[in-house]
Records
---
Amino acid sequence: MWRKVLVASLVTIGVLHVGAGWVGTATSWMAAPAAAGILPKNSDEQYEISFWDSIKDSNYPSDYEAYLKQYPNGRFAALAKSRIERLRAAASAPATKPEAKVESKPAAAAPAAPSAARTAPASPTPPAQPQPRPKAAGAVAQGTVTYATEGGAAKPGEAKAGEIRDCPTCPVLIGLNAGSFTMGSSTSDPTERPPHHVTIPHAFAIGKYEVTVEQWNACADANACPRIPTDPPEAHKAPARDISWDDAQQYVAWLSKVTGKAYRLPTEAEWEYAARGGTSSAFWWGDQMRKGNANCKDCGEPWSDAAPANVGSFAPNPYGLYDMNGSVWEWVADCWHTSYKSAPVDGRAWDEPGCTARVIRGGSWREGASYMVSSTRFKYSSSVRQSQNGFRVVRDAK
């Protein structure tokens, strides 16, 4: 992958970094990441390489178009143009010709990832005990609620008692109270440092699931969002993906107009507060990977390299939120900064005038277990559509 590792350092600790993950000693992927062998990734050249590595095996012309939009004169520009021409020619050729068939699966390479090589400590740490889920704040819980009608249990995408849904095609929301937590990590990527105490001063409601294809299509049907091709076409309950930050802004604007409520993207602090679920461990379930808790290539079934699973296919975190780890990368409101130095501590979005690079969080189904940590973060241009990027929404309490 794009992340550069010092071979000597890795040999010393007995770990070899490969692709989007690494292999090594018996502790392998079962333990939390540490900082050994990390080289900072703060140059434009490294970001371009990471972008290319994330799409270089893709069968989607849009992925190469996204690269050219961000790096029109990049080192891989000629190759990107060539692959776009080849893929389009193959797609338009008669279906009876075997050579014209194009596999409908994303790139085998993982997307640009948020951290340098993540390696394991020598001894595992006992998993942290999940904290009880906070009650929905009263101001948030006053929204229109749709309750499940079949046996008292809600299907994925439906709301149940205590949850919020402002319209039939709106995302289901879970209300969270104000609170404090430690954001970031001192043992992971340099961009996740320094760990700092953050207080979320107001209650808010956040999507129980990522925005689904079906929910995105409701906005597209209203001519308020661009129509994004779905792969596979029948995956209506899968997370919407190939979504840019700018696209997501169109969706929340439409949702706000339809419902009369203030919808938006979560701030980066709100996102991590929700993802941690009241815990301070590397993952919400503890400091060791446990299969069945996230949609990633090391995280257990159901998993396919071709596409993410439907929302709600894995366990929820202690706040009742699904797929905060893995599934698709999730856009947040904040402008990208290379560290948390001088970051706000009141939960607001950290923005800059003319910002063009926005933060994405949480990893995707294409990454290994080491990217599922709650502090994982990276960036993309706000206008870039990438096949592993999606989002979830937040609704203000007021």
---
Amino acid sequence: MTALHREACVEVPDPDARICKVLQRAAVTAGDVAVIADDVHELTKDSNSDLKKLNARLVTLKKQADELAARAPHLDEDVEDAIRKINELNTGAKKVAAGADKLHTGITEAKTGSVNLDAGVGKLKKGAGDLDGGLFKLADGSGELAGGLRDGVAQIPDYDQQDRDRRTEVMADPVRLASQSMHKAPNYGTGFAPYFIPLSLWVGAMVAYMIIQPLNRRALAAGGSAWRIALAGWLPVAAIGVLQVAALMSVLHWGIGLQMARAAGTIGFLALVACCFTAIVQWFNARFGAAGRILVLAALMLQLTSAGGTYPVQTSPAFFNAIHPFLPMTYVVESLRRLITGGGLEPVWHSCAVLTAFTVGALALTAVSARRRQVWTMDRLHPELTL
């Protein structure tokens, strides 16, 4: 039949193309059916048992298909339940993984701790050995201590009542104050001499300039040198001061009995003091005129209260402590104590330098005053105060 259709398609001069294709497919399908029919025939003829097995499998497949059809309405819920359980399983798996990590960390720490424990046990073992040896040494030391205590008890003296009383007094008053004077003045007169000697020299200079003019008027009128005028007014009074020193020390030594550790040094130092005091008193009178005599007396009062001649200057008010280092009599009193009763000469040399500076400074100021007195002013022609 197929060959006829093919020939028909070939022999027809203008067949419809679509119909020709359909016929060709039908011819092929018919041939396939014929082949399958032959195969089925062979199968039924040779293997009847295989068909029976196939029939049984088809029955089983039908049964399973029916069960699947029965479960099909609940398949969505079963799937959701399965998904929920899978999620719970996943969460549990994560917790198990975290626990496994912690377990791993704990195992590592436990391993480290076991190593440390092993080392500590070793140290403990060594310490136990040292303790055991120390206990033996302690036992030996305890025996030596007991023996020493027995020997000490045997050496404790047994004092009688008198010895115990004497030692009790020593324990009650272990320190006694012992005072010693290195350069003691034999009497009150010797102790107060460094204070009254400069006082007499200051008063002598003050009285001398009440009689003698501090600046020579004739020299001032002649226009002489200021330094020459100052020295001319100072030298006579300074010479009188030196004579006063000689007379004063003669009376104190031979008349009253003043004993001096350094007699020559005392006289020489007092000569410098007389020169210094006369220079200072001269300047007060040359600069301030009649008012200078009052200032000289005020300066004397300040020096007497701040020189520390009768009592320590530290017990005086703060004002006198402040002016104490700047007045000449302070250095005179301290140096005379060293020269009369004894002691180091360092303060004496320091006082000599200070008094020399006072003397030179006073003479310089007197020279300036002399230069000013050579210029006549209305105040000099008509002074406000005259004595």
---
Amino acid sequence: MRNTYLFTSESVSEGHPDKVADQISDAVVDLFLGIDNEARIACETLTTTQLVVLAGEIRGRGIYEDGQWAPGIPEQIEAAVRATVKRIGYEQAGFHWNEFRFENNLHGQSAHIAQGVDAGAEKDEGAGDQGIMFGYASDETPDLMPATLDYSHKILERMARDRKSGVAPFLEPDAKSQVTLRYANERPVEATAIVVSTQHAPDYYFHGGEGDEAKYATLRNYVKAVIADVMPAELLTENTVYHINPTGRFEIGGPDGDAGVTGRKIIVDTYGGAAPHGGGAFSGKDPTKVDRSAAYVTRYLAKNVVAAGLARRCTIQIAYAIGVAEPLSLYVDLHGTGQGATEGQLESVLPALVNLTPRGIRTHLGLNKPIYSPTAAYGHFGRTPEGDLFPWEKTDLVDKLKAALK
């Protein structure tokens, strides 16, 4: 391993156009799972200036059967979409929750996909698609996440709370952050650069006119205060460089400034580039889709390995074939940090602790519930499990894992 290096991760706020799309797609997932917990959903969203378009394939009792919508469902979909955009905070001329044009192009699931995925009398439910999924954990932070991504998320979460509470009324919903840390002996020791670009109210930028500098200073000082509050003090030094709205003016943002599409922020959603990614997005998919559920269970397994003190870093890969229940492979990499167990031992023990078929994963983690809207901004991982939310972040396998390795 290199002794000293720089590493960077970025995050985007709930008001970023791609994240608006993700949240809309997951609002549809939650709506349908709340009606039929075995519903099949693949919902894609496009957002742009005063327009939201849904497309994809769905199936569910009391939702869409025999080529027809159940009574009232199209209206419930539109209401859920508009409520999501309202919660994010868009009431702008270019994108307003109550004024954008809405298109619902969802339709029935392919029967050819259904026949390979559904359980039958002689077979278990198969995976919803082929593919590879990865899970990762690191002891860099209490959340067992890469520090660069963890801090990037937390900066934007804090800014969103302050915007909605009125503490920072000059903020608008769209924002991005980026944190660069210097590592020594694989541990973060200094923030070398922090970037925050946030949509703002009129005139909160500096362009040489009288009074502009004072308003921009208000925004800049606020952002620096958030950074200082979120990040460990020892990482912020006299060498830390801050880039706050480095392009200058950022009044036009969100779907009005750039089109948004579901699934374009998969690295923000996962590990900020610190771990491999299988390529599949999460939002808009019901948990029979292993793109989602298997990525959750591999995070769960990797986090429990690190929480058990068996490694400081852990990456797990799993692979599936569409229509086949059992995974094709399970791979564990401890990155040379293992203690008390080898990769081979973990590859044997972990499948004995959790049934890694699609239904086994959903049953173990309790995924057939409307729990997905909160995942669609600020990362699917490194979150606090609470009630039914974020069950893959629990460390309830630690004792069983230690016992199995004795």
---
Amino acid sequence: MRKRTLVGAALLVAIGVVFGALLVMSFNGVGTSFGFSGEKVKLGGSAPISRGDINLMATQEAFIEVSKAVTPTVVSVMVTSTPKTRMPDIPFFHDFQFKLPEPQPEKGMGSGVIVTSDGYILTNNHVVDGADKNGIKVKLFDKREFSAKLVGTDPTTDVAVIKIDAKNLPVAALGNSDSVEVGQWVLAIGNPLGLTSTVTAGIVSAQGRDIDVSADKWGIRNFIQTDAAINPGNSGGALVNIRGEVIGINSAIATRTGYYQGYGFAIPIDLVKKTAEDLISFGRIRRPMLGVQLSPAIDETSARALGLPKPEGVLVQDVIAGSPAESAGIKAGDVILAVNGKDVNAANEIQMLIAEHKPGDVVTLKIFRDGKTISKNVTLTELSQENLASTNQGSDQGNKQPDENGQTNVAKLGITVQQLDQDTKKQANIDSGVLVASVSPNGPAADRTLLQNDIITEIDHQKVRSPKDLLEALKDKKQGDAVMLRVLTKQGGSYISRFVAVGIGE
């Protein structure tokens, strides 16, 4: 039995050796029953389209050429900032000694655009804001790194200029943002999410977007909107047209997550150029001042109240005393239809057109007043640094509840009013008007931002001295009509004047 077992085992080993040899031969390209022939195999087939559409191919070539030309002019901006902390002043802890941990430096990253061969670079104010001394570094497309000096910043436009000590740098071509049109191709070039030299494509999806990137009341909010992907790190980078010209500096995104969700915003390059030139040449912003407070866009109700044939232009809510507008004869209640021949329909459009000028420039305003169209030439002055640095104070409508006695129901507007007391007149620096005691939540005034404790001083440019004056002015008004109210609203410690158009019976 033992001998038979040994013979059987030997036979199995022999069979295994033969099979293994055949298997090795097959994997070494030796033809076997597995079908390996040793011939070179061609994978894939011919292109389904032998010659692409000539227009599509031209667009693709343009994208490639623009990317090659502009990418070397876009840099990475690395910022180090150290948060400032201090011990809170809590009396209970006065007798205890605490050693707070040292704040740790934080690092951020953005983009910049080279605009001179000797190292001036455009970026965003929010990219370099709070940077430590010697805390700004720049990395070029060719991998060289430099320390950068902060030349100047402008929070009102979110523009900053930095400078590196270098020569013969590639310089971006700056285009004309006034010629930008919705629908045109654009590329966004920058360093999103730490991914350097990234190019994304899209179109200009809107212009003149009023988004609030600054708490500054003088902030200029007029952005180019694009669907080219923009993410954190793109800030300060270039938005370029199909010719490779920079038409905007990427600044913000519309997002609920903090990342790209379809829309990004760029500061128009015409405004950036003006701001950067001031910072480089003067070390400060020489902001031209018109001197008016403007309403949002005029809607159908406002147009009816003003006597405009259609909703257009921007309503002047108030004129600043001693301003160029006052000197030129601009009045509260005027409607600005155009600036230097360019139609305007939003406050930020006027803001942008004025900001592109210099102090001393003369602008021509087309005005609608009392049913007529007139022209006014305004010589712009420089906005003072005190005004430029000031910010809006928080709205304070006051908690004083009006007395129930003496209130008059103004049903056509959906409000109740009462006579002003002497203290309120003194605070508001007026001699007449009526106080809005309450606003019906379902009435026409509620939809038009008329507020409790507002003061109505005029209706259709006629003074209101008492509730009776208000009712008399509304006597012949019927449903579908509209009236224009001059209103004082308390903001901070003072009152601001504004116009409120209210429809009757809406």
